[in-house]
Amino acid sequence: MKYQKFTRLTMLFYFLVALAFAPGSVDSAATNQPAAAPAKRMDVVSANPAAQMALDSLQRANRNPLMTHVSRQTRNYNFVRASSGVLATADNSATPRARALVFLAAHGALIGMTTAECPAIAATTSSSAGSKLEVLASETDSLGMTHVKLNQFYQGIRVCGAQVVVHMNHQGIVAVNGDFVSLISIGTTPYVTESVATEAARSLVQ
User: Fold this and answer.
1) How many whole angstroms separate alpha carbon 109 and alpha carbon 162?
2) pLDDT tens for residues 21-57?
3) In the Cβ-directed half-sphere of 38, how many Cα atoms lie within 13 Å?
4) Torsion sign over Cα 70, 74, 76, 80
5) Which of 9, 54, 96, 203 measures 20 to 30 Å from 116, CA to CA?
6) Tens digit of pLDDT for each residue in 63-83?
7) Using only C-alpha atoms, what is the Rg of the chain?
8) What residues form DSSP beta bridges with 53?
């Protein structure tokens, strides 16, 4: 009997000790401590002035709002789509390749093309101090949408990762997306010979 009473008293003692040291909820108002600040929203990237002007021009020609996204790297538009309808009508008698080039000649500033590069693309030439886009492929999907992929070249050298896709249907151009590197100004003459470059590459994999 005495043993059971002692056991109950011991358990009560430990229970009271645990209750005294157990962490409770703390009210920031009661402790005069400021509450944790909410997570800061990432800043919205603004487009380059030339790209913004090109978008404004395109928007004025469309009654419906345009859906867009600005690249953080280039500050040009890497996605522009009509919320409904088309961005621009196109000549259905022309090939998809020709329609894509005509659209970019008129609205290439959206993605960062300069005033010299835009007219040059329509003539399938490159400007003397700029890049050009070359058609890689033209594909039509099961929904009847045609997608023209163009790669960027600078003085005959492929710009890695720079590709633009123009999307169209029977009504016209519905969207454009991709990345274009603007205002490239670098030398294209190799600093090492082919043999030296080959040997350096071999040494890295051995």
Assistant:
1) 15
2) 554 444 444 445 444 444 444 457 899 999 999 999 9
3) 2
4) negative
5) 96
6) 889 999 999 999 999 999 998
7) 31
8) none
